[in-house]
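$ ./design --mode recover --in tokens.txt
reading tokens...
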């Protein structure tokens, strides 16, 4: 069982202003800043990780906040909606909170028998809060205003929009061992039995949808979870056998990764559970100071001077 894809590991999106991004996810949504570091390929840009207390796989939403980034546009070939699991009967709390903080949201509805509300973050990223059908026992991060009985528990699903879902579905079923479990209107729901949570990918088929623009307010990539490097490299062989280009193993300090584009165009990552986020900080102190990849530590003063000031 454990040599399988274990659902979602993390999702990475693009933001604009770093302070606005930090304030929204920690103060409005009540997530924990698990790690404050920089983009491996652009050390003058932050890389923020938001999640639960320990930064557990399946709870981590990360951002590249690029100053003056152009506005992106959702479309075909993109991950277009993030679904968070929230406790039963918590949606009214979130509606009132969104009213208080002037967050763009709609009344939502019900899909696949699950109630949800939809909203956008300050950059336009689309997120749903979902009262899931199954009992999600994960504990969310608590703040003074967002207690455990309403806190976001972690991911429920990610929605991928495609002109045709067939090639993407084949990767999910033939390589990742997901199963088609439900269909409703233009949505097809795929789920892995390997884990209980963060286990669902919804494919939205829109034949006439234009291609999207990957920039501010859109998702950059979706990372799927494996337990260790041995399993990671086994999946690399499977992807190569499908005739798809995939990177070599990359050390991201807190996990090891592979990247490839599935046939529909969405950038997929496969990431390991090890070593986790409590390597350069204790669990109690996660996200409290700027952590740099080893190759940039000698440039710390220069990097800090170039980064926007962040008030936490």
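writing sequence...
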């Amino acid at each position: 069982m454990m040599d399988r894809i274990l659902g979602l590991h993390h999702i990475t999106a693009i933001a604009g202003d770093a302070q606005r991004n930090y304030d929204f996810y920690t103060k409005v949504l009540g997530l924990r800043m698990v790690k404050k570091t920089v983009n491996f390929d652009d050390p003058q840009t932050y890389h923020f990780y938001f999640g639960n207390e320990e930064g557990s796989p399946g709870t981590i939403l990360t951002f590249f906040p690029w100053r003056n980034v152009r506005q992106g546009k959702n479309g075909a070939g993109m991950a277009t909606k993030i679904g968070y699991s929230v406790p039963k009967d918590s949606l009214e709390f979130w509606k009132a909170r969104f009213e208080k903080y002037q967050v763009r949201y709609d009344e939502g509805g019900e899909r696949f028998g699950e109630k949800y509300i939809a909203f956008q973050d300050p950059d336009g990223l689309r997120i749903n809060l979902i009262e899931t059908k199954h009992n999600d026992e994960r504990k969310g991060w608590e703040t003074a205003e967002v207690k455990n009985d309403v806190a976001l528990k972690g991911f429920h699903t990610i929605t991928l929009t495609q002109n045709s879902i067939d090639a993407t579905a084949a990767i999910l079923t033939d390589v990742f061992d997901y199963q088609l479990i439900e269909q409703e209107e233009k949505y097809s729901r795929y789920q892995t039995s390997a884990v209980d949570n963060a286990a669902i990918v919804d494919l939205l088929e829109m034949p006439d949808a234009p291609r999207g623009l990957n920039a501010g307010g859109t998702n950059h990539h979706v990372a799927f979870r494996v337990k260790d490097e041995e399993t990671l490299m086994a999946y690399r062989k499977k992807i190569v056998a499908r005739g798809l280009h995939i990177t070599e193993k990359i050390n991201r300090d807190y996990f090891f990764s592979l990247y490839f584009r599935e046939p529909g165009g969405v950038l997929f990552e496969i990431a390991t559970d090890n070593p986790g986020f409590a390597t350069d900080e204790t669990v109690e102190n996660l996200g409290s100071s700027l952590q740099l990849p080893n190759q940039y530590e000698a440039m710390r003063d220069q990097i800090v001077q170039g980064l926007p000031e962040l008030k936490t």
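exit 0
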